[in-house]
Amino acid sequence: MDRNTPDTTEKVFDKLYKHLAEIMYQKHASELAAGRSGSNVTGHRRPHCLRLQHHFSNTTTFYTTNMKLFYIGIFKNAEKPAHELVSAKDASTFSFWERSTVSEFMTFFSKTVAESKDAAPGKRQEIYEGPYKFHSLGHNTGIVGIIMSDHEYPLLVAQSLLNKVLDEFTAKYPRSTWSNSNPTLEFSELTQYLSKYQDPQQADNIMKIQKELDETKVILHKTIESVLERGEKIDDLVAKSQGLSDTSRMFYTKAKQQNSCCVLM
User: Fold this and answer.
1) Any alpha helices (H) in 35-142, and if so which ranges?
2) What is the mean pLDDT of the chain?
3) What CA–CA distance (Å, rounded) separates 232 from 80?
4) Beta bridge partners of 129
5) How far apart (Å, rounded) are the C-alpha atoms in residues 76 and 56?
6) Is-contact 103 110, C-beta < 8 A?
7) Quick one: CA torsion of 155, 157, 162, 168, rounded to 10 degrees?
8) Dihedral (C-alpha) 221, 241, 251, 17: value to the nearest 10 degrees?
9) pLDDT, tens digit, for every residue of 28-54?
10) CA-to-CA distance for 142 and 120, rounded, in angstroms?
11) Is 70 exposed, middle or buried (0-12, 13-18, 19+ CB in 10 A)?
12) CB atoms within 10 A of CB 80
């Protein structure tokens, strides 16, 4: 087969699953080697997600080096359906043929979080889904900031970044510029922050965020399913979503059939 010939959809899916499983396995193995994990790896079983404890000593924060940010976005969410006003994505760990599907699901799941009842002004959420984590912060102008990361990315840094992004966005785009329409706006700062904050130590105002988190409760959800309204199902949202291509819907169905630990990628 010619090396330039695109893989079939089925082969892309298979590569996608194997790629993600290997990334997560390598992370888990590195933790075991460093003595940070109490779990065991046996046979060929791959861990589907990692919960990492973040250690704080006075004002010093210690971070591992294999953290990852995938997505930063801002949604207009005062009414359903939520609308993505701006976003930046990083699917560089996936092959060219996989990135379109990965990108669509980043927006899909972020939109689902944006439409949840707890994505309200002043509320912060941390939602685990497979090996990924979604952070959200609602703003009083009727928008919500969403970050998608791996499990290792620290809560304080993600929430600090959301504060920064929302402050800068609302300063540049007053509510009047988007409240009566569904525009896609230019906000290049997101791309810059997505790159810069791959290193969590770039974060500032950590102590300010720590104080805010001490004063307000972060709403923790185990999965995307738990943020849906009663009677709603992800399967139905996938089927109805206009933001997903037929290929992406096929991917989701195949992931469900294989009982994959991660339907996103």
Assistant:
1) 96-114
2) 75
3) 14
4) 132
5) 34
6) no
7) 170
8) -30
9) 455 445 554 433 333 333 333 332 222
10) 8
11) buried
12) 10
Determine the Cα–Cα distance for residues 9 and 151; give it in Å rounded to an integer.
28
Question: In 70-153, where does DSSP find H-type helix?
Answer: 96-114
Cβ contact 253:235 at 8 Å: no
Q: What is the largest CA-CA distance in the chain?
A: 60
9-257: CATH topology: Beta-Lactamase (3.30.450)
Position of tokens 């990924």? 132
Task: Please list, in sequence order, all residues whose beta carbon lies within 8 angstroms of the beta carbon of residue 169, skipping any fewer than 6 positions away.
Answer: 74, 85, 86, 143, 145, 187
Query: Helix 155-172 and helix 206-215: axis angle, to 10°?
Result: 100
User: pTM value?
Assistant: 0.67
Name residue 24's amino acid: M
Amino acid at 74: I
H helices within 135-245, ranges in order?
A: 155-172, 189-196, 206-215, 234-240
CA 263/CA 100 separation, integer angstroms: 15
Whether 121 and 170 have beta carbons less than 8 Å apart is answered as no
Exposure of 253 by Cβ count < 10 A (0-12 exposed, 13-18 middle, 19+ buried)?
middle
Structure letter (DSSP) for residue 199: S
Q: Which residue has the tokens 């969403």?
A: 146
Contacts of 55 (CB under 8 A, 6+ apart): 61, 62
Q: What is the pLDDT of residues 200-234, one digit of tens each?
A: 887 776 767 777 777 777 887 777 777 776 667 77
Q: Which residue has tokens 């599907």?
A: 101
| Joined tokens for residue 113 | 């979080």
